[in-house]
Structure to design on (854 residues):
């Protein structure tokens, strides 16, 4: 009789925390790296706006209205000394510095992106877990979600904004509501497939109670897809905010947001395109960066791609 | 056709490099074999032996990461490794064809059967539509498919798995290729279907003089159809020769081990278990109904009137083909799904209708070992966390639970310090040991093994079966063993329950069921077991050494 293969055959490789290898793959992915870097720069831009050679973004100056980019203005300080300020992106029809408004506008856009993504994911996650696991509620919840999805997001947002007084919170709520069904769908489909996995059934056989079952065995499977979904929500939130502001029902016009700047420049667009051009470029780059980050994350976190 | 001197296929010194980071440098290392016209050559080996890679390299279907680095593959004298992609494409289908393990995924779901077979003719011949159709119908006829006309117009989902595999074979053989490569073509099929397909392949091959390269892991299948056998281990050919020689006088220790590990169809001697009753089902039934607003309710009886008794220390096997309801019964007993009718006594309380909350104390008495060792452990948690989860749910302290896990790891033959590792760092057999340890951690009275060894290689299967027998004796477990494999059932079960279409057709002591099957279906199952006449198990090897 031959020797049987050893029972204690060597166990493969050193224990590697899966999280670290994922992080390494992320950093090596050029799409993630570019998207992340651009986003990081935008965040820094927003955070350090006061120190980046900006003026007060709300200061009106009637004498220098609608100046083209590169116009130089002399500012007289209280003590009589003068400095020259160069309006790199020109001024708008109230004489406000467009460059300063664009830089400060990054704050609002990014704040909205982050808060909308995190809140809609948190709410959608809870509803999705319930819909996926509690069979009797599934039909009711999902039909309601289908109803929400049937209404165009912008319309729904306009309706929500008109219910509240317009302002940052109202805009954030207005953008969150239409995003929730998308998160619920993703979470529910994951729960439906994972709950049939033998390891979940093994946990049920081990007497694991429902909350633990959810947290330990089901929830972790939703993290990667939700991170990806989150980036897409963030990108669309920035856009929707800009659209709402552009339509004049978003953030009050004195607060600099990219949407507001463009709305303000709309009337004189043919004569002074810079009012729309610069915030448009920033908006485009930011949304592109967030989408790149999302695409890269999806490719890297998708288990099917892991072996590549 | 090729003359008798040049073999249809000749592989000489073939080596295929694996990309870096693998457990070995070469997927296939210096492999030489040949297939003559009208000959069936079986390539046998366990998972990872390189048998499928060899087959795919012949077809020129290797994944890009795998590169042949040495040797030659000659089809009727023409080297395939140096052939242009155009030439390879012309040869595929015309001179060589392949059939796969999973006939469903190998067929296009949106084309009819007829279209798919005709496609081969359309690409490789100048036949007109009427001639093509006639030829396809004749081929379907010779595959013994019922109603060739209807079959021609059917879509893959409308026909059974066995019929799909026949269609695949028809498509492969329609141009009369010199070489047919069959990659585990019967592994996904039920035994009775498998027997028919094997007979068909053998038939077609001898009638047309096709050379067949048949990849399998199953020595029963080898005994059934092989003329010659090539045994592969870790990318190398360790032994080859005529089937009769290899099966009865294996020379290489690996071949001897493989053949010895194949469970024998002759039931092992077993003492009747006389322990107290652990589990009894009475009139257990599970029905699925799909009632919609617009159609009449369609009721499917997945299991009906199932009565099974299992004693402590006894192993009761439920055998049957897919759709027989054996897994439904197991899942009902485990209360992973509620039964529609009947009671489940363990042994004095009926758990069939208990709510989840009232059921919880009884959960620990019944534990399950699942089929797929790659999915039954949470990939995100260490195996230690998986093992201690159950005991800690029932109030055991973390320290005591870890100690119990360490003891159990040693008991199932793994290093206790491996508790910190993640499931992907273990092999399939090791994971199945961990799954058994996890079940034992609950100190159950009843263990349900749902095809628990079906996904494992024979040598590993043998070890896991030995482990199950060992823990049964140690903990006086009642085991409900669900399997489609009669060989495994013959070796491990005290009693056997045969199910067909949701109903028990026969049950009795293993030896009695095998020697004097009462029901026609049981007889059909036993007769269909591949390589029935081939004496396997230790006896064969002992006979050689004597």
């Amino acid at each position: 009789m031959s020797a049987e293969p050893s029972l204690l055959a060597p166990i493969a490789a050193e224990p590697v925390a899966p999280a670290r290898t994922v992080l390494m793959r992320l950093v090596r992915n050029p799409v993630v790296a570019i998207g992340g870097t651009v986003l990081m720069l935008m965040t820094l831009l927003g955070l350090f706006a006061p120190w980046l050679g900006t003026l007060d973004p709300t200061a009106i100056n009637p004498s220098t209205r609608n100046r083209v980019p590169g116009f130089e203005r002399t500012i007289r300080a209280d003590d009589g000394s003068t400095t020259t300020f160069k309006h790199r992106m020109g001024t708008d029809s109230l004489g406000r510095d467009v460059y300063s408004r664009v830089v400060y506008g990054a704050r609002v856009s990014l704040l909205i992106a982050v808060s909308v993504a995190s809140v809609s994911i948190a709410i959608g996650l809870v509803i999705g877990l319930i819909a996926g696991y509690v069979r009797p509620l599934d039909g009711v919840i999902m039909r309601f979600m289908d109803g929400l999805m049937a209404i165009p997001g912008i319309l729904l947002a306009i309706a929500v904004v008109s219910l509240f007084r317009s302002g940052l919170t109202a805009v954030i709520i207005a953008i969150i509501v239409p995003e929730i069904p998308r998160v619920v769908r993703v979470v529910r489909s994951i729960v439906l497939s994972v709950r049939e996995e033998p390891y979940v059934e093994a946990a049920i056989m081990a007497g694991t109670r429902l909350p633990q079952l959810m947290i330990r065995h089901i929830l972790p499977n939703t993290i990667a897809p939700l991170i990806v979904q989150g980036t897409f929500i963030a990108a669309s939130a920035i856009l929707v905010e800009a659209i709402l502001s552009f339509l004049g029902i978003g953030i009050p016009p004195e607060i600099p947001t990219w949407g507001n700047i463009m709305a303000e420049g709309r009337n004189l667009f043919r004569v002074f395109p810079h009012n729309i051009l610069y915030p448009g470029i920033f908006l485009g780059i930011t949304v592109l960066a967030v989408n790149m980050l999302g695409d890269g994350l999806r490719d890297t976190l998708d288990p099917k791609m892991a072996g590549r | 056709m090729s003359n008798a001197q040049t073999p249809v296929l000749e592989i000489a010194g073939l080596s295929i490099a694996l990309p870096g980071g693998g457990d070995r440098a070469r997927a296939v290392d210096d492999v030489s074999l040949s297939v003559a016209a009208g000959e069936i050559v079986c390539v046998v080996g366990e998972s990872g032996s390189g048998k499928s890679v060899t087959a795919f390299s012949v077809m020129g279907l290797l994944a890009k990461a795998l590169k042949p680095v040495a040797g030659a593959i000659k089809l009727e004298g023409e080297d395939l490794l140096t052939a242009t992609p155009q030439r390879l494409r012309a040869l595929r289908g015309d001179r060589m064809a392949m059939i796969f393990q999973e006939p469903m995924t190998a067929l296009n779901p949106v084309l009819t059967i007829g279209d798919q077979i005709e496609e081969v003719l359309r690409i490789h011949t100048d036949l007109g539509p009427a001639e093509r159709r006639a030829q396809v119908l004749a081929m379907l006829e010779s595959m013994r498919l019922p109603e060739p006309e209807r079959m021609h117009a059917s879509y893959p989902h409308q026909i059974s798995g066995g019929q799909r595999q026949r269609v695949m074979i028809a498509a492969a053989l329609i141009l009369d290729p010199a070489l047919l490569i069959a990659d585990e073509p019967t592994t996904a099929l039920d035994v009775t279907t498998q027997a028919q397909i094997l007979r068909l392949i053998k038939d077609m091959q001898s009638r047309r003089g096709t050379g067949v390269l048949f990849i399998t892991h199953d020595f029963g299948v080898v005994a059934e159809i092989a003329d010659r056998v090539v045994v592969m281990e870790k990318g190398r050919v360790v032994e080859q020769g005529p089937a009769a020689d290899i099966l009865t006088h294996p020379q290489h220790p690996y071949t001897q081990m493989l053949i010895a590990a194949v469970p024998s169809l002759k039931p092992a001697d077993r003492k009747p278990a006389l322990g107290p009753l652990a589990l009894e089902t009475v009139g257990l039934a599970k029905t699925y109904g799909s009632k919609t607003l617009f159609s009449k309710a369609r009721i499917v009886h997945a299991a009906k009137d199932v009565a099974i008794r299992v004693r402590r220390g006894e192993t009761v096997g439920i055998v049957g083909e897919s759709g027989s309801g054996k897994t439904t019964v197991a899942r009902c007993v485990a209360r992973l799904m509620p039964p529609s009718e009947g009671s489940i006594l363990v042994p004095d309380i009926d758990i069939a209708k208990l709510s989840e909350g009232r059921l919880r104390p009884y959960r620990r008495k019944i534990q399950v070992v699942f089929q797929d060792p790659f999915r039954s452990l949470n990939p995100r948690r260490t195996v230690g966390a998986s093992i201690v989860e159950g005991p800690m749910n029932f109030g055991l302290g973390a320290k005591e639970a870890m100690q119990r896990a360490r003891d159990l790891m040693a008991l199932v033959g793994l290093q206790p310090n491996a508790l910190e590792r993640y499931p992907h760092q273990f092999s399939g057999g090791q994971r199945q040991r961990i799954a058994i340890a996890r079940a034992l951690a609950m100190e159950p009275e009843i263990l349900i093994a749902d095809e628990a060894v079906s996904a494992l290689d024979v040598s590993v299967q043998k070890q896991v079966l030995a482990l199950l027998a060992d823990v049964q004796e140690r903990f006086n477990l009642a085991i409900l063993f669900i399997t489609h494999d009669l060989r495994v059932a013959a070796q491990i079960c005290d009693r056997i329950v045969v199910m067909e279409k949701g109903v028990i057709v026969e049950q009795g002591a293993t030896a009695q069921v095998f020697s004097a099957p009462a029901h026609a279906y049981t007889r059909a199952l036993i007769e269909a077991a591949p390589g029935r006449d081939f004496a396997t198990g230790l006896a064969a090897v002992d006979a050689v050494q004597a």
